[in-house]
Amino acid sequence: MSSAAPLAPGAKAVEAYLARLRDVLPDEKADLVVSEVSALIQDRLEQDGPGPATEEGTARALAALGRPEVLASAITGEEGGPFDAATRRAFTRMLAVAFAGHLLLSIVLTVVGADAKLVPGLVGALPRTSWLHMTLGVLGIFFVDVGFLVVLFKCLGRDRVPAILHHLRLEMPGSRRDAGLALVLVALLAVLLNVASFRDALFAVGGPGHRAPILAPDVIALLPLADLLLALFALRHLLILWTGGERIPGLALDALASLAGAVLAVFLMTRDQLVRIPESVGLSSAQAETFSDLLFRVVVIVGFVASLLLVTRFVKRVLRIRQLLSR
Amino acid sequence: MDPRDPRTEAELRRGVLQLVALALLEEPRYGYELVRLLGQAGFQTEEGTLYPILRRFEEQGALEATWDTSRTRPRKYYQLSIDGRRVRGELTEAWRRVRDATDAALKGVS
To answer: Which residues 73-92 of A have a C-beta within 8 angstroms of B?
Structure first.
């Protein structure tokens, strides 16, 4: 947890180094090694004289340790070959996120009985003809993801691969202030979706005096799921307000909320009808159809991106819970 | 291999770094102190090289480690354990064998 005191010059570099080291170390060793390496850095900085460390002194201290990935490989007793510890961890974490996300989307599509593929050949419902076909479908997803990552890692190169871990940081950021703001937003959304007069005024077409609500009954039927999602997020933020930071129950709630969000996004994308333009609005049937089609495409694109992000978030939270439990 | 390259000698010295480190840990010392002592003894090294060695010896039980928490910030001290003395003895024997073999191979070479 960061303190309010300003950081000494170079302290940020030390923090970043230790965070990177923690990322590439096995979970069971991370805490101890990071505290020992931190003590080593401070010992060297102390030799530079009393007072806060200079940026040059910090840079020398970090250079004496070498790259975090190389140090981690030396600590775990692994040679810095083509698949050193940092690369393997980056690959494993990315594969876990990609495979779980991919599989989850496919399962949701299978459950809702969507025949259309979200991305032809890559994301679609699993075959339901037999267990063998379904197993082969799951294996196919796995190998597609492995292949995709191998190509990605090959293109990025060895030096840039461990940097991926920074973009896949598992910690759940959150402060009491952010949680408070988020709760207000959640409350506003809940009112907007559940109070029919607000909802019908917002999702409507037509001019003043004759606005007509357009949400299709299929979409209205999804409101309980949307409410569940909002309730989970609200609980997650309430927990942060109470505890002040990242805790396992909060992470679990966030994981559940992310999952519910992804399911909701997939349900939305797979509805037969999203909007229904009433005749009273005065649009011709061709115009109404074009409008509906356009809206449908926008929802599919937004829903697809949202579901991918939410599934990634779900997997990251699960990995983080596992990480915390293993300490 | 270019014998005039300073890295050549550094590589030769690195081979015995573990033995020298164990020799210096008869009394409790912290990591950076050991780096300085090794440097003074002619074995220039850095924390990134020494720390994994210390960790490995500690995990093997050759070193005993204690945290000094009486300071403003904790510092970890390493010292040779009973098992570590045995390891040091074995490494010393191994070093002598290498040295004798090297001397024998170099006999007669000016």
So the answer is: 74-75, 77
